[in-house]
Specification:
Protein name: NAD(P)-dependent oxidoreductase
Number of domains: 2
Number of strands: 19
Largest sheet: 7 strands, parallel
Oligomer: single chain
Distance between the termini: 37 Å
CATH class of the largest domain: Alpha Beta
GO molecular function: protein-containing complex binding
Length: 495
């Protein structure tokens, strides 16, 4: 764990949610501003590959655990709360408990401020469940013993954000589309660069502030405008868009789930929020954080920047960086023992004449645009089945086609561990009746070639889990055996 070696002054800031899209970008900006940063993570190993790892203090904690939350905020001045349980069906209850725990802990520790990023919303009691939950969390902090700054933002435009990826894939993949009436509702999007500027500045706002601030970019657009303007920036032919009155937010979310990488669990709350007009009702934030000389980024500028970052593989964080729900007490495929229970394995080993570094190059480049080196149709069918059942499917892709990092999403897998040059451990986030891992290992052979080892591990849950494994065993030779042969074949062709 890092010790915060870069900073010797500034505020002492503790960040909850640093493994997510916003938090992963906020941490380096806080460091750059001269603050000392403590990062709270349920699984600190997920942050081992972050470029700022050695410049921060990393502690294990969970906002749903009052004890670990109190320990995390001890001796700190400012807490950033960037946690939202979108993937969970009980997200409102979880977020309420997390906010209450932090509010109480901050009061006991004597923090000067809590900074929370909530959602921009109209002044009405008829909010979507997603926006209602974000508002409730902000209200909990504002009513708590510690002053709070609650920033309220709508659509965030930045490479890798869920809102941007939804907009990008809908526009790029559908030259013609029917859309619901809510595409005419007004939205005030904000570029991730401007949002981060406000978040960093909030750490040093004058004492005594306890209020919300609406934050947005300089443009007020409809979603229809955003799709059309995106097409112009991306140099796409003009899109044909036909609004119809029959598509409910739920039906719209199912369509987004099929067409974009954004899964249904995220698409549903995002779309449900778009049924409201979300524009700033005040711009008081500008009195504390004036616009830079060049001004806030306009929509077209934000899109151009995001597309540039995406094309150059310079996406610092992605919406998929936040893990799917899991029980951290459950075992990992890396655990030395399984403490009882049934575990199924498919283990394959093969020698290759290719050098270890060449085999590793293929292993680390697996997934995304390179595919999985076996029976592509089977992977596509399985991916679509996962999407239709509410899972993540295969379309999350990967951030960089050649290099992986601990904790990042890789299609329907999560990089659980990586020992660069020798071992890659992936944990499945697909919808299966149990827990699954895939481990790919590379080691030097005595003759100068490579020993390649591939291990699939499945811990079944109930009868359905056992039946699932038995059902897919006949396909293992084609899927896993083909993967071994094709990975090594690719490595040997590139010698």
């Amino acid at each position: 764990m890092g010790a915060g070696t870069r900073n010797h002054g500034g505020m002492r800031c503790v960040v909850f949610g640093a493994s997510g899209y916003i938090g992963g970008r906020l941490v380096p900006d806080l460091l750059e501003a001269g603050h000392r940063v403590r990062v709270v993570a349920r699984n600190p190993a997920k942050l081992s590959d972050r470029p700022w790892h050695d410049d921060v203090e990393i502690v294990r904690g969970d906002v749903l655990d009052a004890g670990s939350t109190e320990a995390a905020v001890a001796d700190q001045q400012v807490a950033f709360y960037l946690v939202h349980s979108l993937h969970s069906t009980d997200f409102a209850d979880r977020d309420r408990r997390g906010a209450e725990n932090l509010a109480a802990a901050a009061g006991h520790a004597g923090l000067t401020r809590i900074v929370y990023l909530g959602g921009l919303h109209p002044d009405t009691d008829e909010l979507s469940p997603h926006l209602a939950s974000r508002k409730e969390v902000g209200d909990i902090f504002l009513a708590g013993p510690t002053d709070a700054v609650v920033l309220q933002a709508a659509v965030i435009l930045g490479s890798g954000s869920a809102s941007f990826e939804m907009l990008r894939h809908l526009t790029e993949r559908l030259p013609a589309m029917v859309t619901p009436q809510w595409v005419h509702n007004r939205i005030q999007p904000i570029a991730i660069r401007d949002l981060l500027r406000y978040l960093v500045a909030a750490a040093t706002f004058p004492e005594g502030l306890n209020r919300t601030y609406d934050v947005g970019g300089p443009d007020v657009l409809s979603y229809l405008d955003m799709m059309r303007r995106y097409a112009v920036v991306a140099k796409l032919p003009q899109r044909i868009i036909l609004p119809v009155p029959v598509l409910t937010p739920w039906l719209s979310a199912q369509w987004v789930n099929l067409v974009t990488p954004v899964p249904k669990s995220i698409a549903v709350p995002l779309i449900a929020s778009l049924i409201h007009e979300v524009i700033c009702q005040e711009d008081d934030i500008l009195q504390l954080v004036p616009d830079p000389p060049e001004g806030r980024l306009h929509f077209e500028q934000a899109v151009e920047l995001a597309l540039s970052r995406t094309s150059q593989y310079q996406v610092a964080t992605r919406w998929s960086d936040a893990s799917w729900p899991e029980d951290p007490s459950q075992p990992s495929a890396a655990d030395p023992g399984w403490s009882g229970g049934t575990v199924y394995e498919d283990v394959r080993e093969q020698h290759s004449s290719a050098a270890p570094d060449r085999v590793w190059q293929v292993v680390e480049g697996i997934g995304g645009e390179h595919g999985w080196y076996s029976f592509p149709l089977a992977w596509v069918v399985r991916g679509w089945a996962d999407r239709l059942s509410g899972g993540v499917g295969l379309r999350r892709g990967r951030r960089d086609p050649y290099r992986l990092h601990t904790g990042e999403a890789l299609d329907w897998w999560r990089v659980e561990e990586i020992e660069r040059g020798s071992r890659l451990l992936l944990r499945a986030e697909m919808m299966v009746p149990g827990r699954a891992w895939l481990e790919l290992s590379v080691s030097p052979a005595a003759d100068g070639g490579t020993c390649y080892r591939q291990r699939a591990v499945f811990q079944p849950h109930g009868f359905a889990g056992h039946a699932y494994w038995k059902l897919i065993v006949p396909f293992h030779h084609v899927v896993f055996g083909g993967m071994v042969a094709n990975i090594l074949g690719e490595a040997e062709r590139g010698r």
